[in-house]
Design brief:
By secondary structure, the chain is mainly alpha-helical. The chain has 13 helices and no strands. The protein has helices at residues 8-27, 31-51, 56-74, 84-99, 109-128, 132-152, 157-177, 180-200, 205-224, 228-248, 253-273, 279-303, 312-327. 47% of the residues are buried.
Length: 328
């Protein structure tokens, strides 16, 4: 680029390099460095879209880069800086870029898939701000689009996984809003899809993580219903899958943090089960609750990145809940 500022191929390569470097930094804990690379990648993609106004591919790359920046700024499923408002703004900007494509690109599969993804991302941000109706609408829009794409290409594992992700988002939103029946329905559908995908590609590490998180959501719905034994059963399987994922991806700090949450939720479940049954059973559950609580705190310590993150407040609340159950 220094030799020829008009070399679009070189600029595209630079954009990709910054994008990938940002991915690596994010998942190993350097979120601020990742955001800096994401912004540099976005600058290059924006230039490419600007000098190629008629290129749907350039506009799509610009929108994808905008979404990736939003992920790093505030999406809870990714390492992020906790700037929820700016993340929401980036997702809305990405949608505006994609929806400005016009009728000529309305049938483009990749563009429509990205629109569905941005609605899903937007739903997650709205959920964090307790904007339940808006969040449900965003997730439902995402699900409708993804179901259409999956029907159009039933052989696409990406399309099938996308449907599962939207259902899981709906599950978590219904759970937070107190509609446990709708939450369980959506979570069960998501788990079924994730299991089918994993059976078709058992070596896919992402499939292990996906199934673990969905089963973790099922356990939360069961716990909210007071079904502690069933919740614990789902948690045990989900924890086993998370440990399997971490053996293949030991540097993945968000997965380690999710493991810590699982251990604390398991501690809560055992503590609740310690309040009933025979003396031996109560003692066994209490001992397990203590051990899992200590393990959860260790896992949080091992997954801590530099500085505080947006997840810290919720995780500290979960740790206090687990300790309160032990004290009972």
């Amino acid at each position: 680029m220094a030799a020829d500022s008009q070399d679009l191929r070189a600029r595209r390569t630079a954009a990709l390099a910054h994008e990938k470097l940002g991915d690596v930094k994010a998942w190993t804990g350097d979120v601020r460095g990742a955001v800096a690379d994401a912004r540099e990648a976005l600058r290059h993609w924006g230039h490419l879209a600007g000098v190629q106004p008629g290129s749907a591919a350039a506009r799509l790359s610009y929108a994808i880069s905008t979404t990736k920046l939003g992920d790093l700024l505030g999406h809870p499923a990714f390492p992020n800086l906790g700037d929820r408002a700016e993340a929401e703004r980036q997702y809305r900007h990405a949608l505006a870029l994609l929806e400005a494509g016009g009728a000529d690109s309305a049938g483009d599969w990749g563009r429509r898939r990205q629109i569905a993804l941005d609605h899903e991302r937007l739903g997650a941000m709205l959920q964090l701000d307790d904007r339940w109706d808006e969040a449900l609408a965003a997730f439902e829009r995402s699900l409708v689009l993804r179901q259409e794409l999956s029907r159009e290409d039933p052989t696409s594992t990406n399309a099938a996984r996308d449907v599962a992700v939207s259902r899981e988002g709906l599950c978590r939103t219904h759970l937070a809003g107190g509609d446990l029946g709708a939450a369980m329905s959506q979570c069960s559908e998501a788990v079924g899809l994730y299991r089918s995908l994993r059976a078709a590609d058992s070596g896919n590490a992402q499939g292990v993580s996906d199934l673990a998180l969905a089963q973790g959501a099922v356990s939360q719905v069961l716990a909210a219903r007071g079904r502690w034994s069933a919740a614990l059963s789902e948690l045990d399987e989900s924890t086993r899958l998370l440990r399997q994922f971490l053996r293949a991806n030991p540097g993945n700090l968000p997965a380690r943090r999710e493991l810590a949450r699982h251990l604390l939720r398991s501690s809560v479940a055992h503590a609740r089960l310690a309040s009933s049954g025979g003396a031996d059973q109560r003692l066994r559950h209490r001992d397990l609750a203590k051990a899992l609580y200590a393990g959860g705190l260790r896992a949080f310590s091992e997954s801590a990145g530099p500085g505080r993150s947006v997840e810290d407040q919720g995780d500290e609340r979960l740790a206090r809940e687990a300790l309160a159950q032990l004290d009972r």
